[in-house]
Amino acid sequence: MMKNKVKLVRAYFLTFLLFTAAMANAQQKSVTGKVTAGDDGMPLPGVNISVKGSTTGTSTDFDGIYTIDVPGDDAVLIYSFIGFVSQEVPVGAKNEINVILQTDANDLEEVVVVGYGTRKKSDITGAVSSVKSEELTAFPVASAEQALQGRAAGVVVQSNNGGEPGAPINIKIRGNTSINASSSPLIVVDGFVGASMPQANDIESMEVLKDASATAIYGSRGSNGVVLVTTKKGKSGRLNVEFNTTYAIQNTSNSLDLLNANEFADYQNQIRTNNGVSSSYPQGTADTDWQDLIYTTGSTQNHQLSFSGGSDKINFYASTNYFKQDGIIINSDYTKLSFLSNIDAQVTDKLKLGMNLSGNRATKNGASTKSDGSVSAGGDDIITLAMRYAPDQPVYNDDGSYNFGNTVGDPVDNPYAIAKERIDETKADNFRANFYANYDIIENLTFKTTFGFSTDNQTNGIYLPRVLTQTAGGDGGRAIVETDKKTSVLSENYLTYNTELGKGNLTLLAGYSYQKTVSENFYSEATGFITDAFSYYGLGSATNVLQPDSSISTVEIQSQFGRVNYDYDDKYLLTATVRRDGASNFAANEKYAIFPSAALGWKMSNENFLKDSETISNLKLRASYGVTGNPSIGAYESLARFETLYASSNGETVSAITPEQPENPDLKWESSYQTNLGIDLGLLNNRITLSLDYYNIDTKDLILTDNSITEYLGYTGDDILANVGQINNKGFEIALSTRNIATDNFRWTTDFNWATNKNEVVKLVNNADLFYNAAPSYFSHDRSYVLRVGEEVGLFWGYDYAGVFQGGSLPAGTATLSGGVAGDPLFKDIDNSGDITEADRTTIGNPNADYTFGITNNFTYKNFDLSIFFQGSQGGDIFNMTNVQLTNGDANTTRDYFNSAWTSSNTDTNTPRVGNNSNREISSRFVEDGSYVRLKNIAVGYNLPSDVIEKLGMENIRLSFSAQNLLTFTNYSGLDPEVSYFGRGGNNNTSQNTAQGFDFGNYPTVKSFNFSLNIKF
Question: What's the helix, strand, coil split of the chain in %, to 5?
Fold first, then answer.
């Protein structure tokens, strides 16, 4: 009996469960719909849709379409999108819900990231440029810095070495604000100060802070501007998976038209005749195009896989990226594997925790380019050697060995042999971890603490095998190994308080920051190897180990900072910032400095006389002034220093030290005093938006070398760092965006930016000229550019070319170099001495551009889209040192020079005779206009229709084709107007401010054709 009752209860219970499940299933249903914008009716992709009170959520696809499962008719859907008013819509009995989102009048544009917080763009008082994520991923790049080029007014981006795989990128914001120090901006990624840039596909937003109001919160490191990068984060809702893949074919965008073997022999015979040599040039049997040999078809591939998702308590984003570029010069390539992970957790109602991890491993095999031209090192780099090496010489001798029999000029190595045999490998590891905790202490008062750690390790190994007879044959092979390690620890803690105050909103920020950076370096070099098989890994087998070198340095910065933002009646804006920095690398009397700024904004469009205007939808005036710094010296630079030397004692060599420089207890920061005036204008419901900015930057206390130390004091160094210079930068910036056409099927938008910068040297050491050199060591002069008070930075310095001497009497005010005859170059005789001497050298060109610009047009028709991006520069001279070399007579030359050179039957020309007496002179003859307009990118994309996507079970599939550097319009005769040669003895120009506009042996810019696929699940 009891058993039957139990069975009966079980049956009733099972029936109840089945009935409940059936009822629940009957309640749950699917809702579909489309979300569009209220101002133009265009579909809105990426709109977040969630079920109120639950973790269920989704987002719209490219066509604004969505599908979501709801628990029943009582459900409420929430539609939210940045820049639009959120809506809550009851489901009821509807299975299809179409929603129109209206532009948020109180939030004209997106929320903008600023230092230690965010602000609505309509409330920004400083000069800030935002770069959209889709702009950064418009075409495949090795780093996001490259994608920034031409996208923001006043921001100049240039590769350190053309299209070289893995080449560093140089960014300058509003010109050179220093002379000897770096003018590169501070990079802040997810709050980590001084981080390396992540992959473009992982970036959610990028803000460029340009004026003191925006950058003063970073104090001593803000004078060159700040680039704030926020990486992607997960959103509550279902799991999102995205796969991006790109493959590109690349070729050199240009090559020089040089002489073939027969033409080269004629050229050399003319030189011999002009120089009185009776014997003919012994022409070789080959006809080699050295440029064609070293160039190849390159390729780039980029693959990224990301996962994101979460709930109302925790969200995550994780990605991995593989990038590989095979260069257009043989045996040059770059490979990078990276990852990024973001996790955010709402632990309690008051406490939120987060973690950001990123890292990468990169390997670069470099080609020898941009060398200093040292003859003792076997000549030049691959690029210039391919132009210099005699075309009548073969690649290989009859016995199969490399040919090193260049018949003219200095003995140099075969460029093909250098490209094939020289090893130059760099391995770099980068890791960054950043943790944060955000706690709501009381209402409107939050405390955030972050702790970050980063490490950068790099090893560069170079091996020159014995087969390179001129470079390393006599040494029995040469190996160089250099390692660098930089470790940084960062802790930042700050309070943020928000409250309503009268008719306004007040935000207060106060915080403390501490960062410690340790740098380690080791260098070793050896020669004389038994075998080349072990490359630079076989130092132990060398017979001659040169003196090694190693170092370690530590820099600590501790700071206190604060900021006040006040918005009164949504019309009047105030921002005031102050930061106090203390740095260990500055002198005992000047370790601390204070950097204040203030800014005002007036939203005129919210005044009664404009708020109902149908034409002006936004009008804001901005004004700011502040001081920022540049910690432009390394550790221990202000201290008295000793250097090591070898000395002899009792007939034996011993190590010793000697005084190098005295201390300077008053050495301090370079400080930039910045003024910015700006206007933000929106017309016709912001279909047209315009930003205008004028700035003036006075950088004072420049750190220069003062060589006034008297010799009898016994210091081996003849100079000491001192604050003795000043420089000024001023300019205008324009950023214009227009929505030209917006219909149901077709949309056309334009983004345009334009900027000009004028710099001037205001003060130098004793206001005396400073001369520097950017020419290879075998050129005729060791001064190629000058810094002069009252002039722009880095003016070219040399002889002023006055045409070709026709024989007979010299034209008034001109002369030739010693021994000049008819056909030789004429120069202006500035001192009227009758001879061309050092006294006749003067400024001969200005490498600083008049203005830079970028313009992007985006077209969308149904599922197709087209983007066309032009970028360019006007003004800015280039000193073509390649032409100096190619017209000297001891190398090959261009066909243009050979055909236009002066002869007794061709006197109506401005080109001197071949074999003239110029001796690689630095003169205005080789200064050219560097203006250019470049079709930087053109891209066509197609998004598969939503019905096809649904059948495949995916969210979106996008196919695209793009081309980079397809066309360049310029009068410059060299390989590329975006030049970056920086002078002898270096390999990086990211910190070089004065050597500008020189062209010699740069890696060529590449022309790319890309195929891309984007899949979202």
Answer: 15, 50, 40
Would you state the pLDDT for residue 718? 59
Q: Are 348 and 208 spatial neighbours (Cβ–Cβ below 8 Å)? A: no
Q: Rounded to an integer, what distance in angstroms lies between the CA atom of residue 384 and that of residue 375?
A: 13
282-302 core/surface letters (b: 16 or more CB in 10 A; e: else): ebbeeebebbebbbbebbbbb
Phi, psi (deg, nearest 5) at residue 807? 95, 165
* Helix/strand/coil for 111: strand
Beta bridge partners of 409: none
If pLDDT is split at 50, 70 and 90, which confidence band does 122 have?
Answer: confident
Q: Which two tokens stand for residue 587?
A: 């002198």
* Helix (H), strand (E), coil (C) string for 412-470: CCCHHHHHHHCEEEEEEEEEEEEEEEEEEEECCEEEEEEEEEEEEEEEEEEEECCCCCC
| C-alpha separations of 416 from 165, 391, 890 in Å | 19, 12, 19
Q: Please give the sequence-ordered ranges of beta strands (E in DSSP) within 888-1003, or none if there are none.
A: 927-929, 932-943, 956-970, 998-999
Tokens of 369: 């380019």
Cβ neighbors of 782 (< 8 A, separation 6 or more) are 773, 775
> Which whole-number Å values give the CA distances from 352 to 301, 313, 656, 706, in the listed order?
38, 9, 58, 53
Lateral strand order in the sheet of 814-815: 801-804, 825-828, 814-815
Confidence (pTM): 0.86
What is the C-alpha to C-alpha distance for residues 1013 and 1017, in angstroms, rounded to an integer?
Answer: 13
CA 899 to each of CA 405, 418, 465, 903: distance values in angstroms, whole numbers, following the listed order: 27, 31, 40, 10
**Beta bridge partners of residue 120, listed in sequence order:** 111
Rounded Cα–Cα distance for residues 800 and 797 (Å): 9
Query: What is the Cα–Cα distance from 10 to 757, expressed in whole angstroms?
Result: 85
CA dist., res. 384 & res. 413, Å (int): 11
Answer yes or no: are the C-beta atoms of 235 and 47 closer than 8 Å: no
Measuring CA to CA, which residue among 903, 923, 924, 922 is closest to residue 912?
903
Element at 14 (helix H, strand E) = helix 2-27
| Cβ atoms of 577 and 507 closer than 8 Å | no
How far is 79 from 35, CA to CA, in rounded Å?
A: 9
Q: What is the 3-state secondary structure (H, E, C) of 581-610?
A: EEECCCCCCCCEEEEEEEEEEEEHHHCCCC
Q: Is the dihedral of CA 387, 388, 391, 393 positive or negative?
A: negative
Which helix (H) or strand (E) covers residue 294, if one does? helix 290-294
How far apart CA 895 and CA 162 sit, in angstroms, is 24
Per-residue pLDDT tens over the stretch 556-601: 999 999 999 999 999 999 999 999 999 998 888 889 999 999 999 9
CA-wise closest residue to 929 among 845, 1014, 832, 1015: 845
In eight-state DSSP terms, residue 840 is G
- The per-residue pLDDT of the chain, averaged, comes to 87
Q: Confirm if 456 and 430 have CB atoms less than 8 A apart.
A: yes
Q: Which of 485, 487, 483 is nearest to 549 (CA)?
A: 483
Report the run of H or E that residue 763 belongs to, with start and end. strand 746-763
Quick: pLDDT tens for 937-981.
999 999 988 888 878 888 889 999 999 999 999 999 998 998 888
Collapse the DSSP code of 541 into the 3-class scheme (helix H, G, I; strand E, B; otherwise coil) and give the result: helix
